[in-house]
What does this fold into?
Amino acid sequence: MAWVEVPGQEKVLKPLLNTVIILGLIKCANFSPQAPAYHLILEGILILWIVRLLFSKTYKLQERSDLTEKEKEDLIEEWQPEPLVPPVSKDHPSMNYDIVSGPPSHNIVVNGKQCINFASFNFLGLLDNERVKQKALASLKKYGVGTCGPRGFYGTFDVHLELEDRLAKFMRTEEAIIYSYGFATIASAIPAYSKRGDIVFVDEAACFSIQKGLQASRSFIKYFKHNDMEDLERLLKEQEIEDQKNPRKARVTRRFVVVEGLYINTADVCPLPALVKLKYKYKVRIFLEESMSFGVLGEHGRGVTEHFGVNIDDIDLISANMENAVASIGGFCCGRSFVIDHQRLSGQGYCFSASLPPMLAAAAIEALNIMEEDPDIFSVLREKCEQVHKALQGTPGMKVLGESYAPALHLQLESSSGSRETDVRMLRRIVDYCLEKQIALTLARYLDKEERFLPPPSIRVVVTVEQTKEDIDRAASCIREAALSILK
Amino acid sequence: CCCFRLTRLFQGQESFEQAPMYVAVMTYLGFGLVTLFGYFRDFLRAVGLEKCHIAKERDEQKDFVPLYQDFENFYTRNLYMRVRDNWNRPICSLPGPVFDVMERVSPDYNWTFRLTGKTIPNVINMGSYNYLGFAENNVDFLKTVAERVQQYGLGVCSTRQEMGNLGIHQELEELVAEFLGVESAMVLGMGFATNSTNIPALVGKGCLILSDELNHTSLILGARLSGATIRVFKHNNMQSLERVLRDAVCSGQPHTHRPWKKIMIMVEGIYSMEGSVVCLPDIVALKKKYKAYLYLDEAHSIGAVGPTGRGVTELFGLDPSDVDVLMGTFTKSFGAAGGYIAGKKELVDYLRSHSHSAVYASAMSPPVTEQILRAMRCIMGLDGTTIGQTRVHRLAENTRYFRSRLQEMGFIIYGNDDSPVIPLLLYMPGKVVAFSRAMLRRKVGVVVVGFPATPITEARARFCLSAAHTKEMLDKVLFDLNEVGDELCLKFSQRKYTSRPKEQHHNNNDLNKDFKQDSL
It folds into this structure.
């Protein structure tokens, strides 16, 4: 009998062999001639088998175990790995960063030129706010800079607890949890709930941190067309049919839908009421990423749930970063305690990373104070967004992508040249032209090879409350000039 | 266990003493008992005799697939909840050598906490990663940081590749490169994200990652996200590593036997749960022989080891360019937040254009950048003072003193003699909790870690020493440890230690006094 062993299995077979021998010996000890015939035959076979095993040669057909030492040395010598990193050409578009000297506020100095800032996500102008800075300074005097530990090991400060409390109250949910980095927030939250075997339906235009969270979760990912509720319904119906084939498995497979409030890649809003209807019809849980819509949409800046008037308890998890409207660093998740509390032990970015520096948390608290005291700021922002949106319409050769009330718009080429590289270069020339004319814009950056659904190249135009009508008109005419001269 | 090669005779010795057999038996018994109680409690809850404190799903969503499996939460519900007052203790002061812990009470056995409003002042901090004492709020030292807050604000509101690349970031990167002795460096806003966003940029499918058994979660996550094949070798064990390397180069990729595109060895400088230091010279020799690449995560070792605080490369007298990718964080020894990744110019240029965080994640906050700049300049002596060097030496002295005293007292401690991270083995779950509570009553804040962060039989207390700890503080802690160790019978060590030569102890009289107190 050919006994093929592979490395490792030897470890299993040896004890098995020993067990067989011992059993055989026990059997021999209990041997009695009064036993029925089949008993004796079976025991005879067992004894013969043991004898065979004892005397057979176990030969391993281990892969490459027949290599001699010399051959191994030759292989080691011959093998040449690839270089650690491939060479990057000097004029790779991502090689040359624009250098900002001084603060990235409304008047920004880019590459040595004083410009008006249409590129930083400082929607509510809180980056320069005096009150925020004073609170941060007070916190600095008391706590120093870093927290020197994760939340579990004396890294929980009273400021963190206060910030979580305030965020929960502001969003009118039961609980909130803060992370020390915006990118890590949704990327840690998703794998905390969705594991191998679960199913996640996600919009094609989801941002990169959501994609990384999904990859870390090892669940089945099903993409539906951007903002297409019918496509989502089709996928959900298909899943329902699958479930009927295997109801036992379906009872333990969790399902989630991950969408963004305002999409960073397309600047449009998700159809939340329709989504909530689908949630109850097909029993899926909704995870809402609100980095761009927190502090922007809604009468009081509570985001897309307030914008549509959806009951916030219908959304299982809302995640947002505090790096846009709140002008600090970090991120948070909020929702019912039943959902959020779980992340305190299973959110990797929460448990295994140092907590948010207290002065950044203090700045976020003060930003929340300002947002609560003055809700008119949101309607001012919306007005400015409408102004910018209108002013950019009709730019020759370019189209504006995004809702009229979205603060971060995309300017895309109306007709692509066919090569992404050429398009990017043309857009870069427009950006450079505008920088010359003292309007700071930026190209929307992506990792071309890593994105699942790479968005077309575009220029990001960001609206902030600090921009005046003159600034907006100047920017719009500058972009128009640039487009005319470069895209002819 | 680590190997003892000739080079290591000149560095600190590492020890991982095993406890006597009865300890392991008692630990398993302890867990078994607690698990039985857990099942009993679950039964009581199901029957309705015990109040169920756990948050429940909404009524409208009762017929959804349950979000959590019951057994997943068994450990949390029945074991962790009873003792969770030992973790997440909130503080309301600077995380310096002493801090103020906020008092919490629980009316329902730790299901909910209420802050009483009182604080426990001046608790000695043996848990925060404040190795060089840069967690400080001295107004003079923080002058430049305050200026940056005033000038720049707190956030950056953009990514490095878009409008978030500030001049001070580039200044910091140059300083980091100079500090480490490499060509170039890149800084990021979060230490955890440094690993999880850069490893996928360096390796991918068709590459092999050889990861130490006890690597940090961020390294494991980065390795998983990269899509490369991961093989684990025994902790700090060079024979295991060589075997895996040899096998990998000779056999190639599984099934196809094509040669690997790249092989990357991932290790840490100091392993924070074990206190062990990586056998760097041996790994560098292996990597050169087998043409692999080395990724060194110096989160705990940068600033904390080495004669001038340059990390494990300096500790072993190696050239930093022998390590292909040097990574570290600014949270521990620099009292700030963030991470860096450094190496040759080609490597860093590639990462600037292909790292996930450079494209999608926010840039580092300006005041935090300034704190790192000032701390690093202080360590390098560029600010004209010797404060930095004094701190590095004081940390090394504190480490040697504390370790030797603990060993003399009879505790089992793990790790390398040079490592400022000192795990003290407690083993039994009940003792872990009693130890932490007893030390807090004596105004010493310790960190205890149990399953699942450590193996089930090896629960421990972990001390992180700081250059800011004075000898008086350390003596007080040692005195309390001695008493608590006797009360709870924690002195498991069976070795006999004689006192070390005079250079480690400042005052022999104190030592004699201590000996009288702790003679059995």
Summary: The CA atoms of residues 21 and 27 of chain B lie 10 Å apart. The two ends of chain B are 31 Å apart (CA to CA). Residues 21-47 of chain B form the longest helix (27 residues).
